[in-house]
């Protein structure tokens, strides 16, 4: 790890830069003006040399899409390869902050520089805002040296980009790394097809939690909508309704069509281990691949990066069970 010498600050919108309107808080451009004014009021503060870019229009992160992820990825790569920056700080809304951190963890594999995402629960101009603490905390971490890869800084903590989740909607310490067990097999070397230079395209993905009373017809309707990959949030260690033959057949039919079915645990401390229960084995035999201890955000982001790169269902399944950046191995 080396200290940051040339930093790019990317602003995508979010609460950190929002301003009040008659309809409520809305994204606002020109955050660099407020940042420079704040730095001018604290001349003793040391920050790395920085450049600034806004992704326009700034958005409420509740409106985040896969195309925004791809735009963020392109902007980060340009900051490194065209502007010569050795680190990137991305200012982002909190609603989908963990989703973007996870997606970028896989989209930027091999880039070789630290990328830190942060935001705020209250706008920078609001009383008691956490905006400046988070922003300057991230800057301080980068000034001291952060390992290459994607990270999330919030509430005084630097978190793994593919392990973090949002746990609260009111507390200023809203993010944490989820304490899930991980047993994935680490890759010895990153294959070229997963490198950040690989072109990605949007993918039709879905996430569905299992729940008592889920009907085969409901699952069939979802999978019949053109879904290329499904994250199925299972009970406990990867169990589900093993006595519903129609539902299991829906899963088998989808897998035969080439849909990738990724199982993760609903439990905050959970991980998938199909062999523990017969009910888990039934899901595995129906075509599901176990996601070990991946979070929902990591599972969705990884599926997007793999399928979006044009990998086949079989190739995607191969890499899903292998650890690429710490998402499923400690």
Automatic annotation (TrEMBL):
CC terms in the record's Gene Ontology section: cytosol
Segments crossing the lipid bilayer: none
Domain annotation L-asparaginase N-terminal: ranges: 6-181
UniProt-recorded Gene Ontology molecular function terms: asparaginase activity
Asparaginase/glutaminase C-terminal domain location: 206-317
Keyword check for Hydrolase: yes
UniProt keyword annotations, A-Z: Hydrolase
Positions of substrate binding: 61, 94-95
BP term (GO), one: aspartate family amino acid metabolic process
Active site positions: 15 (o-isoaspartyl threonine intermediate), 94
The keyword Hydrolase appears for this protein: yes
Pfam families in alphabetical order: Asparaginase, Asparaginase_C
EC number: 3.5.1.1
Protein name per its UniProtKB record: asparaginase
């Amino acid at each position: 790890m080396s200290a940051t010498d040339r930093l790019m600050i990317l602003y995508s919108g979010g609460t950190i830069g929002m301003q009040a309107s008659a309809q409520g808080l809305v994204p606002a451009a020109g955050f660099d003006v407020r940042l420079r004014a704040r730095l001018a009021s604290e001349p003793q503060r040391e920050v790395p040399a920085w450049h600034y870019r806004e992704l326009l229009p700034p958005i409420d992160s509740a409106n985040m899409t896969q195309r925004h992820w791809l735009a963020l990825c392109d902007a980060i790569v340009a900051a490194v390869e065209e502007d010569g920056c050795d680190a990137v700080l991305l200012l982002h809304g909190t609603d989908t902050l963990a989703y973007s951190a996870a997606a970028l963890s896989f989209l930027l594999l091999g880039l070789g520089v630290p990328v830190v995402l942060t935001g705020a629960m209250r706008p920078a101009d609001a009383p008691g805002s956490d905006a400046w603490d988070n922003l300057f905390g991230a800057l301080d971490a980068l000034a001291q040296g952060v390992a290459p890869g994607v990270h999330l800084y919030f509430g005084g903590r630097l978190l793994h980009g593919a392990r973090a989740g949002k746990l609260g909607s009111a507390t200023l310490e809203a993010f944490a790394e989820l304490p899930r067990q991980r047993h994935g097999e680490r890759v010895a070397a990153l294959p070229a097809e997963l490198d950040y230079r690989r072109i990605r395209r949007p993918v039709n993905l879905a996430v569905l939690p299992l729940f008592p009373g889920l009907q085969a017809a409901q699952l069939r309707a979802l999978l019949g909508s053109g879904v290329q990959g499904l994250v199925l949030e299972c009970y406990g260690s990867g169990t589900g309704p093993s006595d519903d033959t129609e539902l299991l057949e829906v899963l088998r039919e989808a897998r035969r069509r080439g849909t990738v079915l990724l199982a993760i645990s609903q439990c905050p401390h959970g991980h998938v281990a199909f062999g523990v229960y017969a009910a888990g084995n039934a899901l595995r035999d129906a075509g599901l691949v176990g996601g070990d201890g991946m979070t929902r955000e990591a599972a969705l982001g990884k599926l997007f990066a793999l399928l979006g790169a044009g990998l086949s269902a079989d190739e995607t399944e191969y890499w899903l069970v292998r650890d690429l950046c710490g998402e499923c191995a400690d």
